[in-house]
Amino acid sequence: MQQNIVGEQESDQTESLLNFAELKNRILRNWKWIFLSCSIALASAYFFLRYSIPVYESKASILVLLVGTDNKEIDLLKQLNLPVGHKSGNINNEIEILRSESILNSLALKLKLYQQLYLIGTKTGIQRKEIYDESPIDISYQHKDTLSVPQRPVSYFLKIIDNKKFEIQFNNQKPSVQSFGEPAIIPGQPERIFVRRGVLMSNFWHGKTLAVEVKPLSYSIDQLRIKLNISADDENSPSKINLSVTGSNEGKNIVILEQLIREYESDGIKEQNRIGKNTSAFIEERLKLIQEELNSLEGNVESFKSRNKLMDVQSDANAVMAKGNETEKQISANEIQGNLVNYLLEYIQKTNGFNDLLPSNLGLSEPNINKMTEEYNRLVSERNQQLQYAGNQNPNIQRMEAQLSALRTSIEKSLKNWNKSLQIERQTLKSEESRFDTRFSSMPRFEREYRNILRQQQTLEELYLHLLKKREENEMAQAATIGNLKVVKAPYSLEGPISPKKSKTFLYAFLIGLLIPVSIFAIKEFFNTKINSVKDLAAYQFSVLGEIPFDQEQSSPATETSYKTAISEAFRMLRANLAYVLPENTEGKTIAITSTIPKEGKTFCSIKLANSLASTGKKVVLMGLDLRMPKIPEYLGIGDSEGVSNYLINTELTIDSITKKLDNSENLYFISAGTIPPNPAELLMKSRLYELLNELKKKYDYVVMDLSPIGFVADSYPVIEYSDFVLYIIRANYLDKRMLAVPASINRDSKKSKLGVVLNFSEFGMKGYGYGYGYGYGYGYGYGYGSEQEKKARPGILQRLKGLLSKA
Fold first, then answer.
1. CA atoms within 13 A on the CB side of 551
2. Which domain holds residue 238?
3. Which tens digit of pLDDT belongs to each residue from 696-729?
4. Cα Dmax for the chain
5. How many domains are contained in the chain?
6. Which of 249, 267, 285 is a domain's end point?
7. What are the phi and psi torsion angles at 212 (to 5°)?
8. Cβ(400)–Cβ(408) under 8 Å?
9. Is residue 3, in this structure, part of any structural domain at all?
10. Which has the least CB within 10 A, 161, 606, 687, 701?
11. Alpha-helix runs per DSSP H in 323-366
């Protein structure tokens, strides 16, 4: 039964599926390249993991005590009447404060984040490991005897020689040996480097090399802000903040988070103490003035007693003054309140901006004024905090300034109103006091004068003691100030580096190693214009009579008839298919074998087909009609002899004189092409060639003719018209699809001969087959592995690799 005959053109859907199948086959055929690519990718991943600097992540959590937050320590301080400051109720503001320039700048300076130290590997000099708290040296920079940070980037190497000396090298310059503690000059910069031996210096560090990289402080702060992640934990607590930082040293990450928490807490305490400090300064100023007035009054008392020669005036008037004591106390308290109001009004009038805080907790008996003062100070503190990361034109800043202005006006108006009330109350009390004065009219004049002096002194003393008490309360409040945060989770590091991940790196490397060759195969398949399989011949409706596999283990294409080889089985299949297409009841059947271009294996197929036909007991003659570049003698391993060209030119030659019998085949004969003529096309058009073919058809069952490639020369067209069947050899993965127009024209225009296609070098169903063959012409296309000269000039490893890549 005929096999491998392509009939109708397949549908687009089937063709698409076959394209994917062809891609799959290409991938399976080139599994070695995929294995090599994956191996290289995995090896690269190994070296990447070995020599890359790992990145670690550390985390911490804090709880910010916002307005309205319940806290036992704060409740205790409130019970002692000590002022305690809370943060504002907006957690986003606290996050911005944590990321503010002032806190990060202080953090970077204290921890020297502008400088990084790496331990260089001793074997390759490539591997680097950042060191921080385990550093054996301490490096500082000075500019004109002042500690500073270099303003421009600088990098250098330090090699520790021993406990006394080290070697320093800048920018591939010649290294210099220096002692610890001696200054080193940075080329092109005003700063000097001081390298001092640390407490962790040991013999382990002798001979070790450290790479030092220094960046400007602003750059270091920007990098820290990138590595630092601060976010609110809205799920668990609205006032909880999660902190995390990434870096190449776990200890350094922990220190950064700890210092960040300390800086934030210190900033909160400092802000809370601003009110206390302003109040202390206000009280100190007033105490000095009262002290001066008391000293003046004590001098007046001493002068009065000395002038009137009195020892104790008060003892004489105790009984009379007992009834007026209560009124005097009220007047004294009224005057204290009046003085405090006047002091506070004077202070408000002296400070016009919104940056200064008002003295609080002075002991004013008016609760509304105290409440407005506390609210004013809270808004001032919140405004100053937000100014650290927002400008004056910020809507929140302008809104708070408007509130502060309104509060300031309200406080000043309330103080004036309260002062007037105190004055009215004071006049009432003095009117009542005047009634007691009339009772003292009988007393000597000096007693009344002494009483007035004593009352002034008593008022100032009480005010002085009152301010001293408030100063102590304020100092206690500052000393008892606690931070506005709690550490929920102390800084800790995640187990193992977060980057690069070993498993992910190897997985990505494997996928890249797999995708690169597969992508190359897919791209090559997409842009491939070569004929790859029988499917590519379907559009032209060729009769495909056979597929010759790519069998590289076949060493000789001559007359090998082993049943164990794939090529022999393929030619037996071709022989069976020819039985269906060759004409019946003819005395001899002529088969013309040709191709489009050289190196498609037509000579090889001619020899193998003739040998296969002869193995069935039929008499077969193989004719070499490729007069330009005959290859049959070379493939058969015989010398040149007279052949077709000699027969066509010399009429004295007979058929028997040019026909040779192969020694190892009983029924196979061959006629070589003969001497290469100068005009092969004209020679093959002579009638003597047709006479030769007619005679051969009478003597042999099959006449197999090896013709020239018809895509480059026109020699074979006359012979094709005379033959019974044309066997067209197409090499897979070699011939361009556009060249199929040549056999299609023959199939369409030939009036007598039928045409069948053999797909040579096919990879269908094979693990890898091949054979050597070659073809050459004077047009520059000739080369191959069939000749002895070519066998001596075998390609080198690089050429073979290039060949494999071209077949991939």
1. 18
2. 56-267
3. 999 999 999 999 999 878 888 888 888 889 999 9
4. 185
5. 4
6. 267
7. -115, 130
8. no
9. no
10. 687
11. 325-350
